[in-house]
Predict the 3D structure of the following.
Amino acid sequence: MKNCCYLLFLFTFVSCQCPNTSITPVDVQALMNKWEKAYIHKDTSLLAEVLHDKYLYAGNADGSRTTKEQVINELYSSDYQILKVVFEELDIQCFGSTAIVRGNELIYLLLASGDTLQVPLSFTDVYQKNNGMTRALATHSSPRQ
């Protein structure tokens, strides 16, 4: 009996020490909400938590890629405000510690001129969960009608 209790304690202790590395749709939704919040509030610290250090965005009109640092700098210095982001037709596929998220988004902007603009995009994101922390690794987006 004593050995059984010891093994049960040991198993519980060891299982609690292992970081959860399997990503779930709940992790993905939480990161997407955090990302939207960072954009709406122009919170560069929060955005830095959302984006992996090796994050890359592809989808610029000139074909260039944008790094994490560039995305954060753009948010900081932008003369527009993101009012909200509406996600549609989300397809979340989880593969161990990695998730691929495909869908559409409609970004509502308030421009410096006072005008509003809606930007419809299709996107594919790659997320990774490591040591209990979920972050975005890559995004590709393109305009849609």
The beta strands are 51-58, 65-67, 81-95, 98-110, 116-130, 133-143. The chain has one domain: 20-143. The helical segments are 2-17, 25-40, 44-50, 68-77.
